[in-house]
Hints:
It contains no helices and eleven strands. It has about 120 residues and is mainly beta. Strands 2, 4, 5, 6, 9, 10 and 11 form a seven-stranded mixed β-sheet that branches. A four-stranded antiparallel β-sheet has the order 1-3-8-7, with no helix packed on it. A hairpin with a 6-residue loop joins strand 5 (about 45-50) and strand 6 (about 60). It starts with a strand and ends with a strand.
Amino acid sequence: QLQLVESGGGLVQPGGSLRLSCAASGFTLDYLAIGWFRQAPGKEREGVSCISSSGGSTNYADSVKGRFTIARDNAKNTVYLQMNSLKPEDTAIYYCAAAPIYYKLEPLYDYWGQGTQVTVSS
């Protein structure tokens, strides 16, 4: 069964850091582009960051540029989202998604995880 599993979410104080992981089971991420999305209560899902299958291209939402970094480790079949200088407005459920086409920050990906909660609060 093809599955994406996010982990690494939690409660963190403003200014803190978290690293989210997106691990695949049942298939390899080697040839897939990966996107990270988030959805806060009462808001639409928005693209946060994405990375091409080769890792040579990345994109970030303006709201997270300079604070978040996406990276992939194909040997571990995992993609990471390092989140620094977190703000309360980063609070959301974070999802990873995969597709053979690099959809950048558009929510058109074929495979989706169940999400991991990130809460930024003092």
